[in-house]
Amino acid sequence: VQLQASGGGLVQPGESLRLSCTTSGRVIAFNAGGWYRQAPGKQRELVASISIGGGRGDRITYADSVKGRFTLSRDAATDTFHLQMNNLKPEDTAVYYCSANLYTYATGSKDYWGRGTQVTVFS
C-alpha cells in the first residue's frame, strides 16, 4: 500500500491550490486521514484531519491557522482525499504530507505516509 501526494506548486498570495492524496494497493478500509505540513526550521504540524465515523458521519478538524480557508474532502469510492487551499498566504509555504490509517488483510490497521509536495506562496 502506498500514498501519493500531489498538487503542490508555486502561487501568489490569495490564490488557490488543491492537493490530492491517492492510495494504491489492496486497502480494505480507510479509517482516518490527514494533511500535515512542515516549513523550513519548523516542526511538522497537523493541518487537517478526517476520521471515519460510520453511521455517525465523518469528523473533520482543522488547525486554527487554516480554518475558513482550507477544506478537506474524501472520495470514498477511491480512498482519495483532497485539501482545497484557498486564499493562500506566505506562511502557508511548506512541504505538505498526507497520512492515512488504512486496514489491509496483510497488516491490519496501519499508518501510511506519502511523500511530500511543496507549496510555495510568494509575494
Question: How would you characterize the overall build of this protein?
Answer:
By secondary structure, the protein is mostly beta strands. It has strands at 2-6, 9-11, 17-24, 29-38, 45-51, 59-62, 70-75, 80-85, 94-104, 108-113, 117-121. The chain is 0% helix and 58% strand. The model has no long low-confidence stretch (mean pLDDT 95).
Tell me the layout of helices and strands:
Elements: E1 2-6, E2 9-11, E3 17-24, E4 29-38, E5 45-51, E6 59-62, E7 70-75, E8 80-85, E9 94-104, E10 108-113, E11 117-121
Parallel strand pairs: 2-11
Antiparallel strand pairs: 1-3, 3-8, 4-5, 4-9, 5-6, 7-8, 9-10, 9-11
Short description:
The chain is mostly beta strands and 123 residues long.
